[in-house]
Design a protein that fits this description.
two-stranded antiparallel ribbon, mainly alpha, 2 strands
Length: about 120
């Protein structure tokens, strides 16, 4: 019942509905893209680009899913916050929805760039 109420609140506003739909779609497309190329990846991939050159940047290829999982958790948390505060602060709710869209977009770019760098 709680989730249905949250979904109804998100679906009521055009901006939050569109941002939530596009965010979740981008994450699902990124997940599919990653699954498609997963077997082609080498055993170690450069995921931590802020670390020093060499081995500290490398991690096992299973960790390519880490940015997707983190962004999905952030998007779900933002959507719950959006639905919770929409009645009192619609502008802030829309900002949370747009932030979710930005996070999912940056995750798509990051995963695409990492896989294209390797392949």
């Amino acid at each position: 019942m709680f989730m249905k109420k949250l979904i109804d609140i998100i679906a009521a506003d055009r901006i939050t509905r569109l941002a939530a739909f596009i965010s979740l779609t981008l994450i699902l497309v990124t997940l599919g893209y990653t699954f498609f190329f997963f077997n082609s990846l080498p055993p170690f991939i450069p995921l931590y680009n802020q670390l020093g050159w060499g081995d500290p940047r490398l991690t096992d290829k299973i960790f390519i899913f880490l940015p997707i999982i983190v962004s999905l958790v952030i998007i779900i948390a933002n959507l719950i916050i959006t639905a919770s505060i929409y009645t009192s602060m619609p502008l802030i709710s829309r900002m949370f929805a747009i932030t979710s869209l930005l996070i999912s977009s940056l995750t798509v770019i990051f995963i695409y760039r990492v896989t294209q760098l390797i392949l």
